[in-house]
Amino acid sequence: MRLVRRTLLCLVVGVTAFGAAGWGLRPKPNWTTALGDGAQATFIGGAGESSAGDAVWLYLPGQTDGSEGAEVCLDGRTGTLLRRIDNASNEDRTLKALTRGRLFIASTPKPETNQGDRVRLEIFDPATPDPVFSQWATGAWQPTREGRYFWTVNAQGDRWQVDVLDASNGKTMVGHGFPHDRYLPKSAVLLDDGRFVIFARSPGTAGTMEAIEVWDLAAGRVVQTLALPADQRWLADKIQSLGTTVNGNTIVSYWRSADGKKPMCAIACDLDAGAVACWSKGPQEEPPDRTDDQRMAPISFSGESVIWGAESRDPFAWHWCVEQKGEVVAPWQRLELAVQPLTQPRRRGEVEVSLRAQFSRAPDTLLFTMMEPPASSMVPAAVRGWLPASWRGTSNVRVHRWHEVRSGTWRDVGCRDAVSLKPHGDAVLALVGDDRSVVEAWPLPPRDPKPAALAIAGVCMAGTWWACGRRYRRRIRMAE
Q1: How far apart are CA 72 and CA 58, in angstroms?
Q2: CA angle, corner 91, sides to 85 and 93, nearest 5?
Q3: How far apart (Å, rounded) are the C-alpha atoms in residues 108 and 120?
Q4: For residues 267 and 198, what is the distance between their CA atoms, to the nearest angstrom?
Q5: Residue boundaries of the structural domains of the chain
Q6: 169: buried, middle or exposed (CB in 10 Å: 19+, 13-18, 0-12)?
Q7: What pLDDT, in 10s, does the model give residues 168-181?
Q8: Do the Cβ atoms of 234 and 241 come closer than 8 Å?
Q9: Residue 346 · residue 302 · CB < 8 Å
Q10: At a CB cut-off of 8 Å and minimum separation 6, what does 56 contact?
Q11: 16-44 tens-digit pLDDT
């Protein structure tokens, strides 16, 4: 009987220690920064993946006091406020985050004050109090990823006129005209080394996409030509460009047919290797348990990778898969933890998709946002009444989970109150609260407290057993 009582005591101590240690070792943010009540902040998008040391730019809209809003910059490692840029009341702004933590702003005076379609181009660096570049120009300009050049495309007669502005000296480089019937300007992109990449097609109104051409605009000549595969030479007047992304010297362009009958297509060109790869952006496999009300759509793109989602509403079920270059990386599988749609569905094309997924590091790690049952649902109803009032909730809760495809590991990121997430190096940034007034940085991958909590619980149980044995031996000696 004595050993039974000692065993029960050790179990109680172990369970208590495991729970307390797990709570104490739960994931915590690396830093937290308050932006002010009612900030309604949003992350400023742009150049793609960022490193942990890059600055973080956010846009704060105008408040009810009549202010025009501002852009704020936070240190990516500590969350320290580095600078704030207040917006002028008579300007409209276009914002884009660049590499190295810089911010591009194109400020256009409102129509009543603008003369000649003028725009002020500026690049801000967190380390300097003034813009590193500021110049007035005319037209709609866009920066390269690093902000070394600005470029614009305008229709002039039977040609597309491409002009380039050098940010190092503020001078406009010699432009070049591309015939309308030979080139597709919406797919074009200017690289930070000055090379201009554009899709070429065969002449005529029924011309097909033939090649990707790389131009030296200053010299006015083609320096590289990459032919497209024969099965990807679409009719130029029957396609739509969905955008182009740049990662170093690899360029990925997305297309689809104008009538929607042909699936989306991705064309990737490696300028260093001189290679072109094409693949369909439709899923290679059908999701399991396909139903009539199941809706399927691409959820998130990252370069050559895509997350596909399929959602059924009655009964609710959500499946997902990951593909890279048209090859299946993670086959279709059901997200068992999700029990209901999010309250604010997002749209991808014409398909309503409620759950959210994005790449943390494509294609291996992902971030999911879903609605899950509360922790109290796992406790018997007879015991639930003994829990603290804050633990008795019966409503489903919003949870953000990190997932590693190769190992199948799932972990809770920890930011339960977050309404928006943005991967940032080895962390994920979260805007917290309904008014998005707090920014937090949570480490990735999230810490798993269970192994350490088990070790602490084991030590506590062993210590309890030893203490009980020592006390028993002392009593025996005193009795003798």
Answers
A1: 5
A2: 65
A3: 7
A4: 12
A5: 1-26+451-480, 286-412
A6: exposed
A7: 888 887 678 888 77
A8: no
A9: no
A10: 43, 73, 74, 75, 76, 101, 422, 424, 429, 439
A11: 888 888 778 788 899 999 988 878 899 99
